[in-house]
Amino acid sequence: RLHLVTWNVGTASPPPDVTSLLQLNSLGPPMDMYVIGLQEVNSRITNFLSDLAFDDPWSIFFMTVLSPLGYIKLSSVRMQGLLLLIFVKHFHLPFIRDIHSHYTRTGLYGYWGNKGGVTIRMSLYGHTICFMNCHLPAHMENTEQRLDDFEKILEMQFEGENIPSTLDHDVLFWFGDLNFRIADHGIHFVRESINNKRYNLLWEKDQLNMAKKKEAFLQEFIEGPLQFKPTYKFDLYSDVYDTSEKKRKPAWTDRILWRVKNLCQRASKEGKFSEEQTISVTLNNYISHMSYGISDHKPVTGTFGLELKPLLSDPLVTLNPEGDWSAAHDVLMSYSAVPEFPSSAWDWIGLFKVTFRHVNDYVTYAWVEDDEISSNKDSKQVYMSAAEIPDVGGEFLLCYYSKNLQSIVGISQPFQIQPNRMLIEKDLTQEENSWMQKPDKLESFNEF
């Protein structure tokens, strides 16, 4: 289950609540992955430079919401106002590999990043998946420029060996503020059609729908039905379309499309369906969220089911804590790796709280080679100093990070670290001593 968000946030700060946006109260099973594409994130130079050094406010906001629910930030990429975030449930981490990100500037003839695309790709259970968040040129007359820019973004190449081109991924998701407008119809006809919920009267004049009929490279992209009001342009904090002097004509600028490679290949074989379908994409929900008013755009979400035939069934590394863990003594962990695993001297095992936010959010870590204490053909043991173990205890995970693969390739089951009893007894003693002194102070106060 994948939940994808696209939202032009108009340089605003995060809203107080995103429960409905992320479908957190959904009665169905929880999402496995969240993909969040934002446009017009505040990119004033002071904000942008501070965001390069630290996580930006939107990333921190979504991590704060999702990490208590068992999601970690798998990857992110930022280009001025464009931001793409991907969160996944912990247990999928060992089966997500080859994560790469890229950005393509198209503003000012490719010199400025106010427009363009940010992209993240990965191998998910052995299938190649690519997510592309775009902000294309505005205004009614720039349809051709939008198409040219999208073609340029599609042509970008990820750095690294054996990484497929964008269109060679098994599944490609394309979304963002694509800025396509409703042609020909006047503003009164458009608004009247919207008021009467006769959206079908506008579909044929939607510039993206029109382009898909003519442009071959667009015809393989699929989109759900536009059964929601056009998402642009609204007065702030309202569901009223633009009342300013410009009175922009409403449009479905914010869109989510996808392309399944083997469907395209099968369709081109003139009805010969001998090739086995190993991945399928089902759109379960395609809606806008009218209650959010921080921007002149309404956010749009797509909830998908990805059905995968796993090409990877075992993690590269299996690891476990050994014995009881507490800060009273050094602790041990054991791990084993598959024979083909490309280990490195820079690999490490991190101790994480179960609500950790991202790969660098570890409590402590141990180098797998420097801190190794025993080894045999089946497994290896690594120690961690008691001084590094949290005294207060709690629920934790172990994660094996591969330097060569730049990702977590093994994760333990959650386990308990026992509180340090000596520390607790010391705290209790100090607390008792402080209370013993309080009656004297109270008596002195009463005498006064």
CATH class of the largest domain: Alpha Beta
| Total number of domains | 2
The averaged pLDDT comes out at 89
CATH architecture of the largest domain: 4-Layer Sandwich
Assign an overall shape: elongated
CATH topology of the largest domain: Deoxyribonuclease I, Chain A
**What's the Cα radius of gyration?**
26 Å
Give the distance, in angstroms, between the N- and C-terminal Cα atoms.
68 Å
Helical segment tally? 8
Question: H/E order of the elements?
Answer: EEHHEEEEEHEHHHEEHEEEEEEEEEEEEH
The tally of beta strands, per DSSP, is: 22
Structural class: alpha+beta
CATH superfamily of the largest domain: Endonuclease/exonuclease/phosphatase
Residue share in β-strands: 25-35%
Helical content band: 10-25%
Strand order of the largest sheet: 3-4-2-1-12-11
Q: What characterizes the major β-sheet?
A: 6 strands, mixed
Poorly predicted regions: 48-53, 438-448
Looking at this protein, list some descriptive labels:
phosphatidylinositol-3,4,5-trisphosphate 5-phosphatase activity, 6-stranded mixed beta sheet, 19% helix, 2 domains, alpha+beta, 8 helices, Deoxyribonuclease I, Chain A, Immunoglobulin-like, 22 strands, disordered C terminus, single chain, 448 residues
Reconstruct the topology from this structure:
Blueprint: E1 2-8, E2 33-39, H1 45-53, H2 57-66, E3 71-79, E4 82-89, E5 96-107, E6 112-124, E7 127-135, H3 143-154, E8 171-177, H4 187-195, H5 200-203, H6 207-214, E9 222-223, E10 254-260, H7 261-267, E11 279-288, E12 300-308, E13 317-322, E14 325-326, E15 331-337, E16 348-353, E17 364-367, E18 372-375, E19 380-384, E20 394-402, E21 407-411, E22 415-418, H8 421-447
Parallel strand pairs: 1-2, 7-8, 14-22
Antiparallel strand pairs: 1-12, 2-4, 3-4, 5-6, 6-7, 8-10, 9-10, 11-12, 13-15, 15-19, 16-17, 16-20, 18-19, 20-21, 20-22
